[in-house]
Prior knowledge:
With about 350 residues, the chain is α+β, with helices and mostly antiparallel strands. The protein has helices at about 15-30, 35-60, 60-95, 110-125, 135-145, 150-155, 175-185, 200-240, 245-250, 255-300, 310-340; strands at about 100-105, 130-135, 165-170, 190-195. Helix 3 runs antiparallel to helix 8 (about 200-240).
Amino acid sequence: MKPKYRRHQTREVKQPRYTRDAKQDIKRTAAAGGSLRDKLKAYRDLHAHALFSSLGRLVSSPFNTIMTVVVLSIAISLAGGFYLVLKNLQQFTGNLETSAQISLFLKDEITEAHAKQLAENIRQNPAIQSVKLITKEQALAEFKTYSGFGSAISVLKTNPLPIVVQVLPRDTLENKEGFEELLQTFQQSVEVDSAQFDLKWVQRLQSIMAVSQRGAALLNLMLGVAVIFIAGNTIRLELNNRREEVIIAKLVGATSAFIQRPFLYTGFWIGFLSGVTSWFTVTMMMLILMQPVEHLSTLYGGNFHLLFFGFLDTLELLAISSGLGVLGSWAVLMHQLRLTKVM
Length: 343
């Protein structure tokens, strides 16, 4: 009997995708030639390929991607929410600033013409936003209307009320030193009998705003660090899963920039998608709160409207979230690739 020989069939070994991409990278770079235009075109094609291939990898694992994006979007939403709350509070204090007027009660011998000239001189001061002159007749009419003693005031033969100049300074809440100097100047004026304003109220409001701004900055910093660590940990897991591909890619001649590029773009997409999700989350929360807040404002006779993310705010949110994702990816890559001796 003839011995039976087993036919050996050669089977093609499929190279990892990362290795094939590395070879394509080498071919594209070699085909670029010496022309600057060709080099720029090859550089553009390499980044476009890494950009969309990294997005494809995220789409291919939707569960892990959604989990990571949701966690990051919660942290970014908290930071964005604190920013919008502070922005609306600043709008509220800006409305309060309109009531931060200095009332100058002029002396009895000051005539109305002299008072108008004084008001015009005060209006020329660049630190003054607006000036309003209230004559004796106007003050008496307002007092009769709002005091409830109209009949008793009519008995008086002379008008006891002085001429009042209401002065609204600029940047009352921010420039406390300038406001104090302005108030002292008014008090030393020869035409002014007394200058009335509650400076303690301004100082308390300034302290509240300073604490709010400092607290929001610290919370946003902590949330930003959390985003960097979460994005970095995601990239670390992705790098460990593709460790063999990275090593093979390096062996066939892939550069360190080529190895890092898809991971950096993955961090970019994670941060960008998280920023978009957080924008929708914060916007929906503000829409839910808009009607009750504006109704409360109307009950107090105000005209307060909630502020949302503007165009520049939206761009800033997306840029910061994407940048944090790239930063976390870069930090992990620099550390992990050095440990694996790939760089």
